[in-house]
Fold this sequence. Notes:
With 358 residues, the protein is an alpha/beta fold. It contains 14 helices and 13 strands. Helix 4 (66-76) packs parallel to helix 11 (254-264), helix 7 (141-148) runs parallel beside helix 8 (174-183) and helix 12 (267-290) packs parallel to helix 14.
Amino acid sequence: MKRAKVPVIPVRKAVSGLAPYNAPKEGRAKKLRLDFNENTVGCSPAVMRALSRMTAEEMAIYPEYQATTKRVARFFGVRPAEIHLTNGIDDALHLIADTFINDGDSVLIVEPTFDMYRFFAELAGARVIALRYDDEMRFPVDAVIRALRQPPKRCPRVLYIANPNNPTGTLVQREELRRILRAASRTLVLVDEAYFDFSGLTILPWIRRYPNLLVARTFSKTAGLAALRVGCLFGKPEMLAAMRRACTPYPVNSAALVAAEAAIGDPRFLRNYTREVLQSRAMLEKGLVSLGARIYPSSANFLLADFGPVAKRLVRALERKGILIRGRRDFPRDGFVRISAGTRADTRKVLRAMEGIL
Ligand SMILES: Cc1ncc(COP(=O)(O)O)c(C=O)c1O
């Protein structure tokens, strides 16, 4: 294997030890993109109109956040001081690490989950304690609570929960979250609700009850703004104020602000897309089962399916037909794929192609 050239200035130890994130390949436009849980139809036309009205002068001015923050806060039913706009949830994770994680701290995750939790924690020099979903993709709530009740020195600084989780699609129920938050007296709990629109379960109002809770949302999924990078963090005003001290002055660009406002100004588009995806997911579920895959009940806009030994061939053959799904390597054995639910027409297309291959 070719060794990476050592840079003149050695990088931090935390950086040289990092496993690189498996980002989407280039050239995905015009293909059927069922590999990264994106919106498959594009954003609302209202967003495109708002962007086209931006002026050359607006491009020359550093972004201003107050008005958009107010409107987005109202949309989510919180006060402006309870929301912080970020460059996607990825940026929120970076900010959490920058604000709260010291070199050598530990953080808690339950794998398989969204890779970026581990990535930013390790980048900050944290030790990652990783529990695992069991073979039935059940969340190990008792083990999580035991880990949170460790003596102060061994207690994790941050617990990351994606709810629904990516890639399992599973949901931690409200009562379990309540038990976790009660046990987390010394731990910051991030509940990442990137896929909330498809699950309908949120604990966003709990930010007023639990001072150690942060909730994250994104415009990358239903709103179809993954390219523009907009997300939100919700929490107690004091906690967000502390985080802003560690934040860059302009994390979200002006086009993203305009797009986010236009997206929430078209709630019908958001509702219709969500409804379409839920119908499409039900169709995908049925179709995958009839193709012989084991699937796991999903509350998100994707399904995890176990195809066993044919999975690799399936992913490659679909790719040759211009249909992208995601093979998963973060399971104890091969065979798992994650397939996004786009529109019903997308689902019909991928199921028909799979039938042909299998
Ligand atoms: C659980 C979860 N959180 C966050 C993200 C990324 O969100 P954003 O595009 O806002 O950075 C993803 C993307 O796939 C995800 O699966």
